[in-house]
Design brief:
This protein is mostly helical and 431 residues long. It has 18 helices and no strands. The longest helix is centred in the C-terminal third of the chain and has 34 residues.
Length: 431
């Protein structure tokens, strides 16, 4: 017996236009952000000070996320998408026109631009639940979304590097304005569904509805803790990979490893899109993927070899798009359509804040504890040194391994929760 064909959604031209808009918005923002961070780091010449300023710049985003999430849930989605792009472009114009901007001013404006980017992404992702006809299509949508960050990760650092080297930081800001304008043009011709109306409640209750929802049941709290652990691991990889590699190789080889990571993310996005129709237990997939991710973090820290670390980085990033797509699909399935903006924006801003926070914690910890203890004559040289080796960069390797163990531990803890069967949502179930 032949089953009824699953309806195509959204129309292919609409999907391509939305994805093109998302990619252009993201790559322009990432090019400008990369250039500004290079300038900011050179201005401070201090990892700790740079990390503190970066986290301070992300703090307003965390505090404002409930209000902006409510705006995403209440205002027309196309209006939110276009407005966030335009305001982000105005932040860039402000930076461009300032002859002499203080470091704090740059961080605050880039923080606002980053927050607006999170609002744009949240509006885009939250619209998925209104566009699909079956739950199984949410994972396909989430997987398709992963192409934009994968492409940006692969190309934006090299594009930004060339632009800054040849034309300076302001040229990177112009590039963001151009891509922002192009992204807005794509959006103008696309029909984006609006969020459903909800019975009005007191403003304080509506503002905190996303936070209360995420923490409302053991099931959701377990999922939240699992996701935060993943954010910390991803941030730690970005913080520790550079000192780990520069301890025994040069910047050119580091660039190759980063390129391998970007290629892994691109292949992973394609694999995620291909596998998404077959994944019916996304939380189970998250648990398995985070365990494998933890194992790869441990394995990559054992040998000081560019080829070895490059291969593990490729495989590690190969898993990330599917992991992110499963996380997004789970929250899209669990959160009511009228609350998607508040829930998804909360998670997105937490993820963005995790990198500077991790850098602020892990950097000093590496410098004051792990690196001295793993020196040739350090306290751990005769114990952990037998496994990881001793010398410069081996403290970062031990930290990477410890975080890998913690990631596996959190996944094991989540797997033993009584709420896990409920978390295993069948994405093929109809609404």
């Amino acid at each position: 017996m032949g089953g009824k064909a699953e309806p195509a959604w959204p129309p292919r031209t609409t999907l391509l236009a939305l994805l093109a808009s998302q990619f252009l918005s993201l790559i322009g923002s990432d090019v400008a952000k990369f250039a500004l961070r290079v300038w900011a780091y050179k201005s401070t010449n201090s990892i700790a000070q740079y990390s503190l300023l970066a986290f301070g710049a992300e703090l307003p985003a965390l505090l404002l996320s409930p209000a902006l999430g409510l705006a995403v849930d209440r205002l027309p989605r196309k209006f939110v998408l276009l407005t966030s792009d335009i305001l982000s472009a105005l932040c860039t114009v402000a930076l461009f026109t300032m002859a002499e901007a203080s470091l704090l001013t740059v961080f605050l404006l880039t923080s606002l631009s980053s927050l607006l980017g999170a609002v744009h992404w949240t509006s885009f992702a939250a619209s998925a639940k209104l566009m699909v006809t079956r739950n199984s299509q949410l994972l396909r949508f989430s997987s398709a979304l992963e192409f934009a960050p994968a492409l940006s990760m692969l190309f934006s650092p090299s594009i930004a590097g060339v632009i800054v080297e040849l034309y300076g930081t302001r040229a990177a800001l112009i590039a963001e304005l151009v891509t922002c304008a192009a992204a807005s043009l794509f959006l103008l011709g696309v029909a984006v569904p609006n969020p459903p109306e909800e019975k009005k409640k007191p403003l304080s209750e509506e503002l905190l509805a996303g936070v209360r929802f995420v923490l409302s049941t053991p099931l959701l709290r377990a999922m939240f803790v699992l996701q935060i652990a993943g954010y910390i691991a991803a941030a730690a990889l970005q913080v520790l990979t550079m000192p780990l590699l520069l301890a025994f190789t040069d910047a050119g080889m580091v660039g190759l490893v980063l390129t391998a990571s970007g290629c892994g993310a691109m292949v992973g996005a394609a694999v995620s899109t291909a596998l998404s129709p077959r994944i019916v237990r996304p939380v189970a997939a998250i648990l398995v993927l985070q365990v494998v991710q933890g194992l790869l973090m441990i394995v990559s820290s054992l040998r000081a070899s560019v080829l070895f670390i490059g291969c593990t980085a490729f495989v590690l990033m190969l898993l990330v798009p599917l992991l992110r797509a499963c996380r997004l699909a789970v929250w899209q399935l669990l959160a009511p359509a009228s609350m998607q903006g508040r829930v998804l924006l909360l998670l997105q801003t937490l993820m963005q804040a995790m990198l500077p926070l991790s850098a602020g914690v892990l950097g000093p910890l590496a410098d004051s504890v792990f690196e001295p203890y793993m020196a040739e004559n350090g306290i751990w040289a005769d114990s952990l040194g037998q496994v990881f080796g001793t010398g410069r960069g081996r403290g970062a390797a031990v930290m990477m391994s410890v975080l890998g163990v913690l990631l596996i531990g959190v996944a094991a803890w989540a797997a033993t929760r009584t709420a896990l069967p409920a978390l295993r949502i069948d994405v093929k179930k109809s609404e």
